[in-house]
Amino acid sequence: MEYFVVKCDMRADMTYLLDEKLLSLLLHVREQNNQILEILNKNKSTLTDQFLPEDIPISLPLDNNEDLLKLETYLSETNNAATLTSHLSRLGGRDIDGKINLVLKRCLTNKLAPNFSFYGKRQEKKAFCELRLMKVILSTYSIIYAIFVNKIKFVNFSGY
Q: For residues 81 and 134, is the Cβ–Cβ distance under 8 A?
């Protein structure tokens, strides 16, 4: 009988030690997750701008009309417009709508966007269609659409 009691006590001690070790590991993992999230949140703005052309005179998304005018001047050169188009076309997203929404969010803040409508005919808003930025966004859409359609064709073709 004494053997059984000792064996049960050892089993209880081992279970307690394993539980304690697992809890310690979980707390460590949680702390690491918090550190990773903190680093990602700090670097969120830097990550979005890290592949922007070095000579771009502003940071994205645009927050005010002055920065928009600087960007419009910058985009007057064809190479600059092509470089920004290339950058924007690489942004993530699950589908075409998601990618285009992300492109728009990366270009204009919610503070600046309400100042525009497409033609600028209502409520004294400015015409977005007249901006070089709109042409860059349309070019970006063309690239994203072509990539998406080619992926669909490849997936459909590869099934045969």
A: no
Task: Give the pLDDT confidence of 60-99 residue by residue, as tens digits.
Answer: 899 999 999 999 999 998 899 999 998 898 887 778 888 8
Q: Which DSSP string corresponds to 40-94?
A: HHHHHHHHHHTTS-TT-SS-SSB-SHHHHHHHHHHHTSHHHHHHHHHHHHT---S
CA distance linking residue 155 with residue 14, whole number of Å: 53
Choose among 138, 133, 155: nearest CA to 70: 133
Whether the CB-CB separation of 136 and 86 falls below 8 Å is answered with: no
Angle 65-75/132-158 helices, nearest 10 degrees? Answer: 70
Write down the domain spans for the chain: 1-49, 51-160
pLDDT, position 42 = 65
Task: HSE, CB side, 13 Å, CA atoms: give it for residue 127.
Answer: 7
Cα-based angle 120, 124, 126 (whole degrees, multiple of 5): 40
Amino acid at 97: D
